[in-house]
Amino acid sequence: MEKKIRISITFFGSLTDLSKARMIELEPGVNQTIKDCIERLGVPHTEVYFITLNGKFVKFDKIVENGEMYFVYPDSDLEIPEEYILTPKYEGEPKFILDIHLGGLARYLRMLGIYADFGIIEDEKIIEKARNEDLIILTKDRMMLKNSEVKYGYIVRSDEPKQQLIEVSRRYKLKNWFNPFKRCILCNGKLLPIEKSKILDKIPEKVKEMYDEFSICSGCEKIYWGGTHYEKMNRFIEEIRKYV
């Protein structure tokens, strides 16, 4: 009769949101890696920055052994030897692709000028596009981020779009990249200034009388101008800045 293997895993920081407990004991199968064990507990590999065992760094492919105690850490500013950084930090301006359940968050990100691809339904196609275009996957589907082909991804904890925006902005320091009203809220295209004389047949008479500055989406050609909705969004953005 084979002796059972028992290990313990302690999660830190934001990983406790996903594991639902800080320290967990479990009985893995034979030849199970620490990556297998962590993801079995509901924490995708994309959320793990580094792991230690008895004070030493280990990689995802470490085969677990009876009695071991692992510490698992989220994204951190600590200086870790490069070979033990399990999920690399995203370099440059963050660009996202969101699953179909995060439409409200996608619109808010676009309003702030952040690249936010949205509308693909199938997980496989989201993963493929993220890989090909080096995008960060935002989702509430843990199984998607457990796919070994996913390099960058984050499980959005909140269910309310405004709180989701604050959460993601803090996670990726988006305040440094805010550039409001430079993307189309509908399609993610870039907004370009356009002369009023070129769009007179596309805007209401009242708008012609009240406004002189306009933008047009480079993708869907939707036209934008200032107004009460613009003022309302400005107030919203100023409020968000206070929290991030």
Automatic annotation (TrEMBL):
Cross-referenced Pfam families: Mut7-C, Ub-Mut7C
Domain Ubiquitin Mut7-C: 30-76
InterPro entries with a match to the protein in the record: Mopterin_synth/thiamin_S_b, Mut7-C_RNAse_dom, Ub_Mut7C
Domain Mut7-C RNAse: 94-236
The protein's name: Twitching motility protein PilT
Biological source species: Fervidobacterium gondwanense DSM 13020
